Amino acid sequence: MRRVVQWLLVVVGGVLAIERYTLRDANAFVAFVYYFAQPIVISGCFFGAAALAWHDRHRRMALMAAVAAIGFAAVWAAQSFGFRGAAAPVGAHRAVVWNVMSGRMGWEAVYSTLGELDADVIVMVEAWEDPETAEAYRRRFLPGYQATGEFSGLVMLSRGELKDVKSGRLGRGSKFVYANIQIGGERIGIIGVDVESDPRRFRKYPLEDLADVAKLHGDGPLVIAGDFNTPSDSVHYAAMRSILQNGFEIAGDGYGPTWPSFAPVLALDQFWVNARVQPFRCVSEWTIRSDHRPVVLEFGSSADAGL
User: Strand 186-194 and strand 222-227: pairing?
Assistant: First the structure.
């Protein structure tokens, strides 16, 4: 029986690896598997096979499976940890994006955490809440912030003036909110995003729509923040990558995955910026106040960075 399980683990790990590094989520029929075909899961399959083979004294098989397990674990570590962050200079801006899970752990805890993060701009996802309750907590924990209206759970808050606020749909079931914000004497476009969470939904259309929205508002510095519900190596980011860069890939500092917060394996919550923005540091904060970790981006304009 152990022999059967051993080979089953090898086959499952191999199939997941092939899917992850060839098809990925390009095809709607296999896209669902892509979300489970994480390097750490593949590594676990081969590690289990190695342990069973070693127990049965199949040393060669155990060695090969162990090498594969270590290799995929190394890939996972390389993708999950960032060491590119740098201390932000004086005058840098600070933004936070957080899926607050509809405040199920308590709105006071949510707003207390946001106050501690001390950001110039906050994008809240799944922020369905009573307007009067929200206003009371904002006065208490985020005094002086302006807020957009709640749009399908998306809310943007800023220490600076919010102008040209717009909201809309991306593909089917996804949405965005846009605002032009005055921060430190300059105007910066901010787009908050919530991509449909159902892994059976094809990501091609909302992410391509988002790329079009970014082009429309990309004349100046532009920061996109949201719960993308899509790992950053998805093939459907191609249109966005032609004009934007992922904040963690440029300036990641520490462990990046954000979901689920108690044992994160997927980097679903992300920042993307255009060429007029220079990220200095992008970090995922630990929390038990939502099933997602909040992500912080410290950034300036490319002119500030001397580019």
Answer: parallel
Using an 8 Å Cβ cutoff, are 211 and 222 in contact? Answer: no
For residue 107, the model assigns a pLDDT of: 96
What pLDDT does 305 receive? 45
For the chain, what is the radius of gyration of the CA atoms? 21
Encode pLDDT of 166-199 as tens digits. 999 999 899 999 999 998 788 999 999 999 998 8
Q: What is the pLDDT of residues 69-116, one digit of tens each?
A: 999 999 999 999 999 999 999 989 999 999 999 999 999 999 999 999
How many residues belong to the chain? 307
| Model pLDDT, residue 32 | 86
Distance CA 165, CA 181 (A): 9
User: Tokens standing for 29?
Assistant: 């029929």
Looking at the domain that runs over 87-301, which CATH code has it been given?
Answer: 3.60.10.10
Are the CB atoms for 48 and 9 separated by under 8 Å? yes
* Domain boundary assignment for the chain: 2-81, 87-301
Strand partners, 298: 94, 281
Beta-bridge partners for 226? 193, 270
- Structural element, H or E, at residue 180: strand 174-183
Within 10 A of 172 (CB to CB), how many other CB atoms are there? 11
What is the identity of the amino acid at 147?
A
Tokens of 30: 């296999």
Amino acid 303: pLDDT: 57
Residue-level pLDDT at 27: 84
Report d(CA 58, CA 54) in Å as an integer.
6
φ, ψ of residue 148 to 5 degrees: the values are -75, 165
**Dihedral angle over CA of 35, 38, 41, 46, nearest 10:** 130
β-strand partners of 225: 192, 271
For 77, what's the count of Cα atoms within 13 Å in the CB-facing half-sphere?
Answer: 7
How high is the pLDDT of residue 28?
80
